């Protein structure tokens, strides 16, 4: 697997600056009042590194001088994640904290040595995988060192009998799938961050993939973890199931590097699917659509991918892409009695056509009130499933404020939560487009994933989104979780006590104090200072 020793991730996801097609710009101007004026940007620069000379010598002695970096380019390349505010900061809008150094250990033993040395030197550590956090999860702190895990890029072993694989934490998702495919296996974890995110990052954030209805969330896949802490290394997970006390794996899964640096992950794998089928449907109205998905979940016949877009997301999708000749489709649906079209994508993956046909038939038997639009729409979604970040880059280049947030709740509260978050976001802008979709469904509830598009403020671009996000988080409190799969990071840490209670926060703080008594591991993430 290729080393990635120069992770400059803050630019657009493509080599050329992405641009919106003319028809999309015209549509946005009509819908939101977008103009040709937007906040000027400038190149981000880094202050000189303040890493003490002794620390330079110690860290270089562990990882090698060529893997202990303090130059501006290397430090800026690992500054922040990929949130809207992070990307604004890299355009010179808002503020950002730049780390003093980047170290690239070669293996778990070197990671453990770096963690121990930083604890002794009083340097904070920010573990860095793909750098795709959108909640401040890789934000640098004072006197911080980025521990970039890019060189931990090995598939350690595959146990084909038990269907287990052990990956080092820095393996990117596409590389993991390529390696497993040689054994006829797959992990099946495909979030939108798939192209950049790493196995360790998936574990550290309790990631959920687009096919989680079929393959499960990432924590369902993790059989074991290896972790480096200031107190030493730890390994959790020795059997497929255990009654030997609480499962300590789950202290690390979702711990966001605050309890330790994950260096290896043992995951459950499955046979690589040989056939796939993705189809598009339309349901009339959000509540009816949610009810359709709920029944599929409760009858246990969900497709591997089950994604329901609300009216606005459906409208925007067709308008910006011209999908399925939008005008003709609208007339067709109206003739079928559909007044509020909501797009439903269903995707099945199987070992053979017979298995796929049986599973698809089981789903469709329970699918009531949905109009089938066919495979063209489903395949178009599958082939464009990773385009979101590129589209966001293009929107930002056009002067748009565009960002996402997500939550989850039980079915009985889904409509109320959706309504309140939508209203909070709508009230925060002048002419926004607020879209939502259900991307993950369970017997007891579902996730809600919101996307906001609005003209970017000329006076206070960063504050514009901060106020909107705070309003949305306040609306979520008491009705749903502050994060379904983006994690807590810095952004959500102030809202965690309302979800788990003060006692819950004390429990987390006690764990951190045991494993990281000097508080050097990813400060400010998960637990607010």
Describe the fold and architecture.
The protein is built from 19 helices and 18 strands. The chain is α+β, with helices and mostly antiparallel strands and 529 residues long. A 7-stranded antiparallel sheet has the order 15-12-14-13-17-18-16, sandwiched between helices. A 5-stranded antiparallel sheet has the order 5-6-10-8-9. Strands 1-2-4-3 form a 4-stranded mixed sheet. Strand 17 and strand 18 form a beta hairpin. Helix 2 runs antiparallel to helix 5 and helix 17 runs antiparallel to helix 18. The protein is globular, with a radius of gyration of 23 Å. The N terminus is likely disordered.
Layout of secondary structure:
Layout: H1 22-32, H2 53-63, E1 68-69, H3 72-77, H4 84-89, E2 101-103, H5 108-121, E3 124-128, E4 144-148, E5 155-159, E6 164-168, H6 173-181, E7 185-186, H7 199-205, H8 212-215, H9 218-221, E8 222-229, E9 232-236, H10 249-252, E10 261-268, E11 270-271, E12 275-284, H11 286-298, E13 305-309, H12 311-321, H13 326-335, E14 341-350, H14 353-365, E15 370-374, H15 375-383, H16 388-397, E16 400-410, H17 414-427, E17 433-438, E18 445-455, H18 461-476, H19 496-515
Parallel strand pairs: 2-4, 3-4
Antiparallel strand pairs: 1-2, 5-6, 6-10, 7-11, 8-9, 8-10, 12-14, 12-15, 13-14, 13-17, 16-18, 17-18
Helix pairs in contact: 2-5, 17-18
